[in-house]
Structures are given as C-alpha cells and as structure tokens.
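hi!! sorry for the late reply, been swamped w classes. u asked for the two structures so here they r. pasted raw, havent cleaned anything up. first the sequence of the first protein and right below it the tokens
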Amino acid sequence: MPRRARNTIGRHLALALAGAGLFLHGPHVGANDAGSINILATDWGLTLKADGSGFYNELARLLLEGEEAGIRYEIQPYRKAVRQFVDTEGTCLFPTNLSFLARSGLIDGDENNAVHHHYVQSRPFIRARIHLFSQPGTPPVHNLETIRGQTVAYALGASTPYLLRQYGAFFIAVADETDKAQLLLSRKVDMMTAALPDALFVFRSLGVPPAPYAADAPVDVSLLHVACHGSDTTRAFLARLDQRIATLIASGRLAAFFEGHSIDPNAYIPAGATDGGPKTPGRRGPNLD
C-alpha cells in the first residue's frame, strides 16, 4: 500500500478511535463517491490535531452526529487542506469562511461577496475573536498604532500581515499555535495574534494564565462555517447540517459543549444562528492569528 494511503487511513482510524467510533471511515468513501461527503479539516496544532484530538475535532463530532456513515473526515496541515479543497471538486473544508478564501485569492469573489454559485457554506457555529496578545507583565494593546516596530508572531498561512499592514510591525509566521504562544511567553517576540477561544486552550495546556490582551478591542471577528463546492449532494448535506446547528443551539447542547470546555457560550455562539442567518461570511476570515 502506498505510504500516502497508509497515512490517510491511519488518520481516519485515529479519529474514529478518538471519537468512540462516531466516524465510519474507509478507503471506499471519497469525494467522488455518490452521496458521500469528504470534509478536509485544517490541522493547526492543539485545538485541531491530526490524531483526532482537540476542541475543533470534538466540535466536528457533535455537529456531524447522524452523518457518520456518509462522511470522510480527513485532517491535513492547514495549507494542504485549503489547497486540496480548492483543487478538488466535491470536497468541503472545516472550519473556514468563504470571505477569507476569497480575499486570499483562493476562490473567485471578494471579501463582501464571496458566496457564488460554485461554493456554499453552512450556518456559522462559532464567532471567533482575533486579539493581539502582549508579553506577560506588559499592558494589553488597545491602540494598534503602538505595534509599530514590534515583532508579531502569527499563524503560518494566516492573513495577519495583510490585516495589520498599515501599522509597521514585523511579522513572523509560526506553523503551530503552541509554538507561537511559547515564543511570546519566552519573550522572543513582542506580541502574537491569536483567536479566542483557541488561545485559551493553548495557555491552559502550558499551565499559565492567558497573556495580556484587550478583551474589548478585538483585532477582528470571524464567523466559522463548513464550506463546500456546490453540488446537489453538498447542498443537501449543508441543509441537514444547518438544521443540526439550529437544533444544537436551541436545545442548549452547543452551549453545554462550550461550558464543558470552560468557555462562555454567550461569547462564541453566533447571533442569529438559529433563524436561518447569517449564512454569509463574517467580516474577515478564519485563522487570522
């Protein structure tokens, strides 16, 4: 068996075991199989790991309950997953935002009109907030003008340099979110950008309180979705997923999931996610950290 096939099946099996058998993976399920859905998940470290662990993998299991037999959930490094999604008809990407993909030039469209006939996405299920974190013992950043000349760590493949381009900072791309936090804590960079709730899990794993950040002044806000190439199969899947998200919110199960991870659901459940909207992208895209 080719190494790539062994690695892919290994990732599937690891996720199935981590999910207590919730995902039924196998080589017979693929993006081009009638009725099946291939979801590419973006591995960026602690919160979505290739071994099937992490907050977003657990969230995927919750969102996809009832869809297991027809889902192939494959975890890839962030850039590889995005590239494979763009290049492969019939695939989906989790978690993402079409506005981000359009602004990055990966799909047709612009930041304010990224949903075209070829791409569709679910209701949002998380409202992520992007913040600047400063070194422990220093003041949080309330004014972006103060980052001029400072060194800022951000996630490899993210849009941070574009987003903050006018403020004259120096940017260092880091592939792993835990490594990025360790650079900040060891004072090897002046600041880092990171998404909440993701950064909360990272700091907890390191056994330290969150680095200073201005809670009332996010650099950006992003609604996260499942996005797919448009087809009868993916549209039907997203219609079911939309209903699933609405039910999880209305029943309190999504809130309980967040509370079970010691995060405030009121800060992260998107407004209007139970009433059919908003289904358009958030102001910016995900992974701006």
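now the second protein. again sequence first, tokens right under
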Amino acid sequence: MLRDLRFARLVSVIVVAALGATSAEGSARAQSRPPAGAERASAGEPAPAAEPEERPSRAAPEAERPGRHCAGEPVAKWVGDQLLAVQTNPLGLETVVRAGACIPLFRMPGVLFEQTQLQVGVSTFLSPAYAHVGGYVQLTPLSLLQLRAELTGIGMWVFPSDRGAYFALDSYDADYRDEVLTSEVGESATGWNLNLTAILRLRVPVGPIALIAVDSFGMERWSVGDGSHFVLLRHDVASAQSDWIAVNDALLLAEIPLSDSIALRVGAFDALRWVPEAGYVRNLVGGIATLVLARPTGAIFELQPLVRAGIYTHHAFRESELSIVVGATAAYDFGRI
C-alpha cells in the first residue's frame, strides 16, 4: 500500500470534490477532482468524495436541473471508487477500493442539494505488506460537505523488502529510517483503524475555466501490534500502539476544459500529518496534475490519471526531499438498485 498516501482517502489522495456549476464534486475526486477523493486522490492520501461531474446544459434553469446524487443521476445506485498509486520516498504501492449503495438524500432543486446522498458499503486498502478490510458510512448533507466514518480490521505481514512489515519501536523518537526497516527485523501484526473525515469542497467558474478548492480533515484512531510504538507506514510517522493521528489534505486547482468529456486539472496541494501525543508534524507541499475523463466506459463514470510531486517541509529525516506519486482514480456506476 502506498505508505505515505492517504486519500480519504489521492478518501480520502488520494481524490477532488467540487461544486458543479457551483456544485461540489465527489469523493472519488478528492485528490484531484473530488473522491473526490484521491483520496481518491490520495493513494490515498488523498484521496479525495461524491460523484463525478456531468455538466448540465447552461441553458437549463437551476430549478429544472435534475440532481446528480448518485453517479450523476437522482436515483439510488450501486457505486464504487478506486485509487491505485505508487510513490517514491518512501517507496510504496497501494490500492484503495470502496463499493456500496448510494441513496439520494434531499431532492430539492439547487446546487447546494443536487449531490446530497447517503452511502453505505465495504472498503479495502491493500499493499504488498498489509491489508485493511471493513466498511464505511458516508453522508453528504450539502453538496459542498461530505462526512465519512470508516472502520477496518488490519493485517500486516513480512514482505521481502525494506519497509514491508510491522516494525515495533521503543518510543516516538526511535529511528525508523528506510535502511533500518529491513525484512529481517519485520514482524506480522493485527489491529484496527477508525477514520472520521470531513471534506469541504467548492467549484467556482471563472470565465472559461473553474477554480476548485478542497480541504479534507480527518481524525484517525490506530491500534496495531503488541509493541509500545510502531511505524505507521501509511502516513510515514511513528505512532503509539494505540494512538490518534490528525490528517489534513488541501487542494487548490484550476480546471481547464479540453473537450466535452475531457478536462485538465492542475494546481497545488498540502498534505499534513500530526501526531498530537508526540507533538510531531509531517508536511508535504507541491503540485498536482490530473486528466479527467468522463464516462470512458459504461461502468466507469469517471477516470483520472494523475501525477503529484512535493517537497517535505517538515519530517523527522526527509526534510527538503522530493516525493512523487503516480496513479489513477476511478469512479464506478454499477447500475440502479
């Protein structure tokens, strides 16, 4: 799994939600459009919250515009989103998949309500060294606000590479550089993870382009292994055996339409991780670019290849170093319930 990626989720990422014709986009775009996601655009890290955007005719009055609650339509559907990403510094690979039932919430006209929905489903996070399996509940009470609670069980095992296992530590200040975390000292472990996430997203048309702003804030509870502390690979921080981690991913993007079904999004991101008990901050700042492909196939509502590059402004040992993420997010439409 992409060790440093989160979403949200490049959900929550790992993707970028935005306000469509001033309405918000979804979770699967949180890292780029909204998941959406990145998540979702996050491999996780961002990722990224609701549904991909199908732009209605500009001539249609707002009161007559149909809602886009679930995969672009005002009807209950089976939906899903996925993030697949690889990262350098630290080196990692992760895929995040969520799938479930989407039910429209408020069917009132207007951009504040056209993406409101309730989602309930299963979620998985998979990397060469561990897997999370569980479920999530996601509420979008307003198009610009998404709330998600996600609980997963964790299994970790030894993968024959550096940073590919559970690594126990003596304290928050213990050495966890890549060259220290070899497979010879790695172990297996189990545990659980609770993520509580709130995503704010806004899309504002400015002439022929649009500006998209997304902020995803989460509090994550981790309980893994038997050691007093361990290396939390997903966020590249040292954590206590049972600990809270604060996660904030911010995006500011410009959306440039290239055709009716293709758009380019480019902009900046900030990925902050804070361990309150240790007073430790890890922060990454840089640029992100994604190509948004609407309805490339019948089952894929939106596909977004992406690339992200950033510099660590705060880190125990990676400060001023470069980290690159390359991947893609997909939002799925599995049909009506």
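hope this helps!! also noticed smth abt the second:
The chain has a mean pLDDT of 85.
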